[in-house]
Amino acid sequence: MPGAPAKRIVLAGLGPYSRTMYYPLLERYQSAGRLTIDTVVDLESQRDIVEKYLAGRSLQPRRVVLVPDAADSSTLTDALDGADPLRETPAWGCIVATEPRAHRAYAEWAVRRGMHVLLEKPVTARDLREEGPEEALRMVEDQLFLAELAEKNGVTVVVQAQRRAHPAYLMVKEILAEVVGEYGIPVTYLDIHHSDGTWNMPWEFVSRDGHPYKYGYGKLLHSGYHFVDLFCWLTEVNRGCARPPDRLGLDVSAVDARGVDAQLTDAAYARLFGRERWGRFSGLPRPASVPEQLWGETDVVLLARLMHGPDVVTTAVLTLLQSSLSARSGLELPEDTYKGNGRVRHERVTLQVGPLMTIRVDSCQDARPGGGRSPFDVVVYRNRGLIGGEAVSRVRMRTPDAASDAASDSLNNRAREELFRDFLALDGRRSGLALHGTTVRVLAAAVAGVVRAARGGSGRSVVALDPSVREWHRAE
């Protein structure tokens, strides 16, 4: 609305992702008069990094608040409420982009003070080293608590799960909904592959706090959330079938940080980096030197079965990898651990609607440092004799106003901005927190299965899809 006051925004978390995505986005919208960067919040241990980054920016926040690293919810609340700009008049909204174990505390603080929230994935995370599977399942309680609190306080919480706003996947879901709705045949098979080339040196598993492994979780609560959510979101089209799914059977298989340490031997590292260079690092603590600790997973495969009673409606395979093609070629950890660490995204999705249709999505970056080109190709194969249309149709998607499909201006980033706009517009229809209940249930069950399997148990479980079912999870 012309003449509307600029929205005051709190940015909680100025880590590598926020420095790449959110702060430049906030600067652009502040320059347009849409908002003001009211407060930046981070940890006291990050003081030098925060000050160095902000010193090079054209636009400055009104206030920087640094909280103690070991702050609990009460200490955190006191530190935030004591910030001048927030003491008397809370900001309009808060972007929560901290390490996920702090998500619930920041989101609860913001919602209780009437702020709208843009919440980074995952919704929450838990330290799994002690209670393990039971603690993983409590992520469902976190989602329900925050969703109910937001409704009670009349605020909007949008989850940054950008594939819900991605033009390629919006097109795929529209095609699926049309065919499934007309013929009553569900999505019978779904295969999701995502590899991101996050290559950690052995000692980094022990030391790093951004996208950590030392708290007992890994890939699933890093980028894995996106693809569990994509699976749940795309298969919503099955709800209109005569026999919609009412539960999900799940089996997990994973490799953790200790397993990667065994896959890449010292001899292999010495061959790749040179014996002398490797020798300067090889004595640092690593997962193999702490065998009793629960380490987060780097690679995980989920075999899922959407069921109606005893019958399988959809079979799905989710292959989520970090031990994959990387552009990293050095031993030292770069300053930019988000995209400057050699990550290479390969993303492929295949869906079958019985004998009627196959849809394939393919988006693979090349291995240039910083992220190579990343177009999205969508191919639709139809049984034209029965449902009409072209037997094969292909669409290559790029950013809408650029000939280049460079990673810095990718469709994924455009989709992230779409959900940022939803947040500013208080529009939770695409990715409001309440819509993520099924995703969080499936994710929590998968994480619990990984932990049980790591401790010698079974990775199998059954998940009730009806949100009213209180006993929603059963390990097998």
Description:
The protein has 476 residues and is of the alpha/beta class. It folds into two domains: 7-160, NAD(P)-binding Rossmann-like Domain (Rossmann fold), CATH 3.40.50.720; 162-406 and 432-475, Dihydrodipicolinate Reductase, domain 2 (2-Layer Sandwich). The chain is built from 16 helices and 16 strands. The chain has helices at 16-20, 22-31, 47-55, 73-81, 84-87, 103-112, 133-153, 167-183, 202-207, 224-234, 257-263, 266-273, 275-279, 384-387, 411-424, 437-454, and strands at 7-12, 35-43, 63-67, 93-96, 116-120, 157-160, 189-195, 247-256, 297-308, 311-321, 346-353, 357-364, 376-382, 392-397, 461-464, 473-475. The strands form two sheets. Strands 14-13-12-11-7-10-9-8-15-16 form a ten-stranded mixed beta sheet. Helix 6 runs parallel beside helix 7 and helix 10 (224-234) packs across helix 16 (437-454). The radius of gyration is 22 Å and the shape is globular. It starts with 6 loop residues before the first strand and ends with a strand. Residues 401-408 have low confidence and may be disordered.
Which class of secondary structure composition applies to the elements?
alpha/beta
The strands making up the biggest β-sheet line up spatially as 14-13-12-11-7-10-9-8-15-16
Number of helices: 16
What is the CA–CA distance across the termini?
A: 54 Å
CATH overall fold name of the largest domain: Dihydrodipicolinate Reductase, domain 2
Can you tell me the CATH class of the largest domain?
Alpha Beta
Specify the overall morphology. globular
Q: What fraction strand? A: 15-25%
Rg, rounded, reads 22 Å
Helix content: 25-40%
Q: Which regions contain 5 or more consecutive residues with pLDDT less than 50?
A: 401-408
Tell me the total number of β-strands: 16
CATH superfamily of the largest domain: Dihydrodipicolinate Reductase, domain 2
Main beta sheet: 10 strands, mixed
Number of domains: 2
The CATH architecture of the largest domain would be: 2-Layer Sandwich
Mean pLDDT over all positions: 92
Protein name: Gfo/Idh/MocA-like oxidoreductase N-terminal domain-containing protein
Organism: Streptomyces phaeofaciens
InterPro entries: Gfo/Idh/MocA-like_OxRdtase_N (IPR000683), Gfo/Idh/MocA_Oxidoreductases (IPR051450), NAD(P)-bd_dom_sf (IPR036291)
GO molecular function: nucleotide binding
